[in-house]
Amino acid sequence: MALRIRDDDGADSVVTYVNPSKELNAGLWSLFAGATVLLGLRVWVKLTRRHGLWYDDYILIASWFVLMANDALISYEYSHGYVTQNGATWDDKMHILINISSCGTLIGQAWSKTAFGVTLLKLTNRWQQYFIWFCIITMNAYMVAKCVLQWAKICGKKDYEVWYRLDVCLNSKFRDDFKEGGQIYNIIMDFIFAVFPWLITWKLDMRKNEKIGLCVTMSLGMIVAIETAVRVSWKDEGNKRDPYYYWRNGVSNVWYSSEVAGTIMVQCIPVLRPFLRDVHHSLTSKRLPSTADDNTRRSRTWASKNRVSAAFSKRSSKPPELSINQDAMEGLNFGYNETKISAGIELRRISEDHDEEKRLEWIKQ
Where in the sequence is the signal peptide annotated (predicted)? Predict the structure, then answer.
């Protein structure tokens, strides 16, 4: 999808344009690789934990296929004549490919956001579900309308009155405003979907740090919304026909692809939280002291208690109770609880996350 389709392919034929194919392919396929890795991990986590896939997973996988096909099509365009030189013009085949890739971008944007909307349907009450359904339906309806307009003719422009376009004549300003409105609506949907996890989570009986962590991971779509807003603002500056005309078009394609790939990636991160927690526990367990060290520690503690008991027994038949200044010990127990006992101090391990059973399973696999 270009910043702006040219009105006259043969204009400024003396300009030598910069070909951005290398930068374009690096950007497109790096984003695709990131989306592929995270989506693969999401599917693997769900299947290995025997939760299975749900509708949001299938929609996300469909979005991934659209992203792959669209990236391949854009790469093909830039390697087969998209960047013209010496007054050459685009043929009908290139125009058709550009329209197809533009529609592919629109479909990827709508479907990737729809997947997150479907995820939220599992976590919301009835009136919230009605609102989310409204967002999903209107967003996809807008996408279909923009795809239709992409193939429509433009009144008064001969370049758009060709055989492969629909027999519908649109005003140029209306067409541009409608397409820009679709981008703004996508930004609004990203912000709305990013806010919903906070509304859902904050009143639940969970620890505050758990709430914040869960909300942040489920609201990463805010990053995509900000990125989209920056891209729309940059796009509105236009694209003058200088040597970097096609280079800016290539950057624009990477921006559009990043919206789809980014939306896929940020939806995979919350599902990977159990997997990342298991990895963290696995790495932590390797640093814990061995059994032999534990036995040695217990032996030394027992010996210490016996020595203290013997010292007290010489003075009194009833040893005094030892009090512990909890403020002084704050932050110094290194994973142990202090327990007052007669004639000594016993150290025992803190149970590992005793609130684990209270954690809410947000993403029902």
Answer: none
pLDDT at position 197 is 81
Out of 25-39, 237-251, 337-351, the most confident range is 25-39
Which residues, 6+ apart, have CB-to-CB distance to 100 below 8 Å?
A: 73
**Amino acid (one-letter) located at 270:** P
Distance CA 164, CA 167 (A): 9
Alpha-carbon gap, residue 101 to 104, rounded angstroms: 5
Do 311 and 235 lie in one domain? The reply is no
What is the rounded average pLDDT for all residues in the chain? 76
Q: Which of 23-32, 117-126, 171-180, 321-330 bottoms out in mean pLDDT, i.e. has the lowest? A: 321-330
Which of 190, 195, 183 is closest to 255 using CA atoms?
183
Tell me: do 222 and 327 sit in the same domain.
no
Lookup: tokens for 115: 């997947």
Does 186 fall in a domain?
A: yes
Q: What is the DSSP string of 106-154?
A: HHHHHHHHHHHHHHHHTTS-HHHHHHHHHHHHHHHHHHHHHHHHHTEEE
Report in angstroms the alpha-carbon separations of 203 from 49, 121, 127, 277: 28, 18, 17, 24
216 and 301 fall within a common domain: no
CA distance 283 to 244: 49
The yes-or-no verdict on residue 171 having pLDDT over 70 is yes
Residue 247's domain spans which residues?
21-280
Q: 262 and 200: one domain? A: yes
Degrees, nearest 5: CA angle 256-260-264: 155
Q: Tell me the mean pLDDT in the region 349-354.
A: 41
Residue 215 lies in a domain: yes
Q: How confident is the model at residue 344 (pLDDT cuts 50, 70, 90)?
A: very low
Residue in the block written with tokens 């010996």: 303
Domain end point (choices 280, 311, 337): 280
> What is the number of structural domains in the chain?
2
- Whether residue 362 contacts residue 270, with contact meaning beta carbons closer than 8 Å, is answered with yes
